[in-house]
Design brief:
Strand content: under 5%
Shape: elongated
Structural class: mainly alpha
Oligomer: single chain
Largest sheet: none
Helix content: 40-55%
Radius of gyration: 13 Å
């Protein structure tokens, strides 16, 4: 079975809105799946947009 190609090209405004809304309190892999993009692409875009995980979310992972 062939691997599904995830590359989608430039980010749309709606995708960036979803990323901005969900990034702080949701797993990056879950957001990537919702957007149909690779996890690394979501991480890089979030970083370039200045987004960070919330302290509450990080604490729930035991990393605060």
């Amino acid at each position: 079975m062939a691997k599904k190609k995830l590359f989608k090209g430039p980010w749309s405004k709606s995708e960036m809105g979803v990323l901005k809304r969900l990034f702080a309190n949701n797993p990056t892999a879950q957001i990537a799946a919702k957007l149909g993009r690779p996890t690394e692409a979501v991480k890089k875009k979030a970083y370039s947009m200045g987004l960070k995980k919330s302290k509450k979310y990080m604490k729930s992972l035991g990393r605060a």
